[in-house]
Specification:
This protein has about 325 residues and is of the alpha/beta class. The protein has ten helices and 13 strands. Helix 2 packs across helix 8, helix 8 runs antiparallel to helix 9 and helix 9 packs across helix 10.
Length: about 325
């Protein structure tokens, strides 16, 4: 399958993204002096910017790759939600899967950047688990969307309370009943709730935290023993672990591959995991092998690390890199 054929196949896919959404806000300026009120820098504000973040950045990556994302989440009934809906409209993303709740607060992460260095981050958020009533509403809402033409479901977990054990279990059950591909970008709190999924994609830190183990990062026998333990617990079909500068690891059944990272000028790793899970999922929907899927996702994750801030993948740049490095 050529790179052109792969990307053409992506355009026919409709992917449901379920997870915690947020706004990544940036305040940028220059620091020229220290405040006389406290030993802190004074920033002369020159630019402010709001971007879609969390699971919404996964949706942006899918959109950038030509697929149709359907974003499903719960936001607050507040000014942050108004801003979030406005950003969805600006990026031409549907809000059909978004629910407002007066019991929650829309997550906003504001980064203060002076002289191109992040000086402070301010988080506005609620991390309470959904109430039973909210779970009922959300599961029903997801079920209605799944009854339409959905090729895969991505769980994008940021530990903000949306993905409860019940929500995860019931949605996976619905997907398995319909033979829909399910991929997961997990966090620690619900690490072992994602049983019987197609692909489970922690990074190395999340893997260690989730299983409460420690080992040298380059100790492959110890690492693979942990992967075996993970699969015994989750019964997932594919394990896909990002290993930072060491590349990625992928395993399906008895077949396993270590794929090295490509040398990059790393600027910012923010959002790389969102890009990786987006590519991995789309590659599975078009029938690529886990090894080829991992190679392509690995390249994509490296490319977005060369950009500052949370940004979706550049499709044409990725296509060129795939031609050069994988499908020459």
């Amino acid at each position: 399958m050529t790179a052109e054929a792969i990307f053409k196949a992506f355009t026919k896919k409709r992917i449901l993204v379920i997870g915690d959404v947020m706004i990544d806000a940036y305040l940028r300026g220059n620091v020229t002096r220290v405040s006389p009120e406290a030993p802190v820098p004074i920033i002369n504000l020159e630019e402010s910017e709001d971007r879609l973040g969390g699971a919404a950045n996964v949706a942006l990556n899918l959109l950038a790759l030509g697929a149709e994302p359907v974003l499903c989440s719960i936001v607050g009934d507040d000014y942050g939600a108004d801003k979030f809906y406005s950003l969805l409209a600006k990026r031409e993303l549907s809000s059909e899967g978004i629910i407002r709740s007066s019991n929650r607060k829309t997550t906003i992460k504001t980064r203060v950047i002076g002289n191109n260095q992040q000086l402070l981050r301010v988080d506005e958020e609620s991390v309470l688990l959904l109430s039973k009533q909210e779970e009922d509403t959300f599961i029903e809402h997801v079920g209605a969307i799944l009854s339409l033409n959905i090729d895969a479901v991505i769980f994008e977990d940021y530990n903000k309370g949306l993905l409860t054990e019940r929500v995860i279990g019931e949605v996976i059950g619905l997907c398995n009943d319909k033979d829909i591909i399910v991929t997961v970008d997990p966090k620690k709190d619900q690490f072992f709730s994602y049983e019987n999924v197609t692909l489970f994609k922690p990074n190395l830190k999340e893997l260690k935290e989730g299983l409460n183990v420690d080992f040298e990062n380059k100790d492959r026998p110890a690492f693979e023993k942990v992967i075996d333990l993970l699969e015994q617990k989750l019964k997932n079909k594919i394990s896909f672990v990002t290993l930072s500068e060491q590349g990625v690891f992928v395993k399906e059944g008895s077949k396993k591959d270590y794929i090295p990272a490509h040398i990059r000028n790393v600027s910012d790793v923010s959002g790389a995991g969102d890009t990786v899970i987006s590519l991995a999922t789309l590659c599975l929907t078009v029938g690529l092998t886990p090894c080829l899927m991992a190679e392509i996702a690995n390249i994509a994750g490296g490319l977005v690390c060369e950009k500052s801030g949370v940004v979706p993948i550049d499709k044409e740049l990725l296509k060129a890199e795939i031609r050069k490095l994988v499908l020459a």
